[in-house]
Amino acid sequence: MKLDKIAASFCLEGIVEKVEPMGEGFINDTFIISTIDSDTPDYLLQRKNKRIFTDVPAMMENIQKVCTHIRQKVVEKNGDPMREAMTIVPANDGKLYFQDEEGEFWAVCIFIADTISYQAAKTPELAFQGGKGIGKFQAMVSDLNEPLTDILPGFHNIRYRFGQWDKVLANDPVGRKARLSEEISWIESRREEMLSFWKLVESGEIPTRVTHNDTKINNILFDHNGEVLCVIDLDTVLNSTCLNDFGDAMRSYTNTGLEDDTDLNKVSCDIGIFEGFTRGYLSETIGFLNKKELEYLAFSARYITYEQVLRFLMDYIDGDNYYKIKHPEHNYQRTLAQYKLLTSMEEQYVEMFSIVRNVADGLA
Ligand code: GN1
Ligand code: MG
Predict the structure, then answer these.
(1) Ligand 1 pocket test: which of 214, 237, 304, 338 has the largest number of ligand atoms within 8 Å of its C-beta?
(2) pTM of the predicted protein model
(3) Could you tell me if residue 292 is inside a domain?
């Protein structure tokens, strides 16, 4: 189906001028719908990846619940709900999505204009603001009592990931396993350590809360004062541990290189950025995080980075079915770069741990 027809299936204000591709997501396809007049908004149109999101209607319900809740909080604080919250635009039939003739699912939200987004955190100050933004987001949804559907069971659950990993390795569908024994040993040698962290989540010592689960820096919109305006890309809002949001943010913020850098010398964990983000994050969350969460905050950076190494390597061994790739070795390249980041975090872990303790003590 043509993009303009898809756009016309949603309750848009104004006259559509054009629909063009935008961004580089690994999962969905994103387009921007521009409208002719300056007093009507532009929109983001997404084709949701139905292979990964097998229940798009439930996902959109989750997103809507979170957006509605955040909107209310923003209004209570006299903020601007059209800029500080995401606005989902329904289809003409009132549903939160449109399903085309080919069975593809589409969703639209208002494009928040005049914002800044970053691919990397260059300064501790920016990291501080990013940390505050994620902390605020978690604080705002901490009293969201409506249940969310678990649309991605096991998303950041390493026990679940090991289940997938073991199957993919047993099948070895494209015969890549034989030459990856070293890389596979990176995963295996840390299996127990990662599982013992996850057991704390399973036992409830580390509680489950409403979380974002994809807190990369490019999923945050900043304003011109350098403060966080709005957290976007809510596809993965789920009940999980707050630590996953902290850890995933650290995986992207602290990386001095690219997620798929070919020059591994460029990849490392910047401890100043780690500290900046931690300060911002804890300034908003210290009131509700428990002792165990604080104790494992620094570890969560290693946990999520490890999980990402596993996911990229697993997808490579599986024949590249999950992540979009730009060339045949892309997932392998991502694996090496994320592993380099992981080892850099491991080397600096003692320092990361004491930064969290010092910042938390300073706020207590
Ligand atoms: C995916 O689509 P994107 O780029 O926002 C992925 C994240 C990974 C990330 C790797 C639903 O996010 O979990 O960390 O790629 N999202 C899903 O950069 O799997
Ligand atoms: Mg994204």
Answers:
(1) 214
(2) 0.96
(3) yes
